[in-house]
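A further point concerns the way the authors explain their paired sequence and structure data. Each protein is reduced to its one-letter sequence and a matching series of backbone shape codes. An entry of this sort, consisting of the sequence and the corresponding backbone structure tokens, reads as follows:
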Amino acid sequence: MTSQILNQKVVWFMKKFLFFSLMVSLLAFASFGCKPDNAATNAGSKPTVQASQNVFAEITDSEKRKVILAKKPERVVVMVPSILNYVDAVGGTIIGRPSSSKASVIPPSMEKAEDVGHVFNINMEKVVGLKPDLVFINAAQHQKFIKMLETNNINSITLQPKTYDETKEALDITGKVYGKSAEAEKLIKTMDEKITATVAKMPKDHKKRIVILHATPSTVTVELENSIAGNAAKMLGFVNIAQGTTAIQGKPEKAPYSIEALVEKDPEIIFITSMGAQDKIEKRLKADVQGNPAYSALTAVKNNKVFILPEDLFLTPPGLRYPDAVELMAKHVFPENFK
């Protein structure tokens, strides 16, 4: 009898033990299945950077690339001349910069930085050798270098400001990179106020018809609203007669020139931007534009409303001088409003 009771107790204990073991296994399996999606559950996989982790800045550049800066950059190389002014304006520092040229003056505070070559011919071996933790690049000239920089664990930010909104965006990004967002916001506010003051002096609903000719030694084109001059004209309320024209492939801010279209739409104002030797520019304009008898019949020509726009404001991005570009264009057309 005692043996039978003992056997019953052993069976009861074994059933309890098996039940407890099964519950533990189920709980462990459920816990494993509920791990966060970003956990590194496989050997060799990399943990995902979480928003809660310390990140200095998250930047979306002009090419819509998301760049995460784990810490404030301390060794910055700028490969775009116009961006030097943005960095200088927010009080940033650099270790490398492009060569100076007629169209791009190096800020005094950056003259001693290492010269990494002309913007169109950057010495990438020198750039990498400087061991930067961030490089500012231009999409048009430097897109091909992004992979090389990534291979060397170097962050890059693409900036290519032409319009006023793109200029403000570039300044905002530069401020974030250097931890100087407040300074960038003040600069943007000042620019906004200057442009607003200029626009306020323009006659209401003037709707002046304009065209912007761009001349090089080899060709003449017209500029659209996404060019520097085109954007400034739009802010001033001018009507660009070239708007809606199909852009030249690879040059979204320019369209083909046509004397027939010029005569048909008869602009009241002609602005001219140019790039290259002045004597060759004048020769090209005479051959393609001024030499045609139809040109003399244009309202703008008859009223002597043809204006040459300076390279430093309308060819190279004016940056913080955008308000100066807008004001200059307005003064050309309505000088009496700016006395």
Notes: The mean pLDDT is 85.
